[in-house]
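User: Hey, my collaborator sent me this sequence without any context and asked if I could get a structure. I don't really work with proteins. Can you help?
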Amino acid sequence: MNLRYKQFEEEASRQHFPDTNDLERCFGWAKYTHKEDSSSSEWRPAFIEKSKVSGGQYTGRWVFEPGPKPTDIAAAAAPPTFSGPGGPPPPPPKDNKEEFVELDRTKVLLAPRVPKFDDHVFPEHKQYLEQAQMLRASGKSDWEIETVLNKLLDDKWEEHKSQAQVQDDSQKWPRITVDIIRGYLQRQQELHAKATEKQVAAQYAKGGLFG
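Assistant: No problem. I've predicted the 3D structure and written it out in structure-token form, which is a compact way to encode the shape of the chain:
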């Protein structure tokens, strides 16, 4: 194989950071606050994942780490100070790396329309999304599935309004969209594939599939 063509193939198949979208994280933008500049803010590219601390929030790290703070630069340029023999040693240099703070959904923009890691499902949607695979298998398109599931959701809302004596629709549950349906089904397929891989690995560990 031509060496240049091989290099071209490797470059073409290499995942670039804006394409990151897996079960752990995805590419996006997050609001960064400049604490040294009157708390001004800007959107910066970041690798974003689900927070392990707060439900419904995100965490991650910046694609391009922020540079050192002006105060740290000045401290590094200052001559060292010594307290003399027997005195305490000088403090260790500061780590200029800034941590990615916990952010809610309003301060994060996810690049993929359907992030693979974001498996958040509204509780009111769950029982209807579980029917999506059966409806797709019956030949319905995702758009038709959206219509069917939202009709069921609307009927459930009207029942809830009657039982809870709700007067208006201001607190009505969010609609089930095609993106929500596709994201849910994709995650279910990936979970099924992982479970199958574990079963196959367990069979091999016990002496092979045909042992």
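In plain terms: The chain is about 40% helix and 15% strand. You can pass these tokens on to your collaborator as they are.
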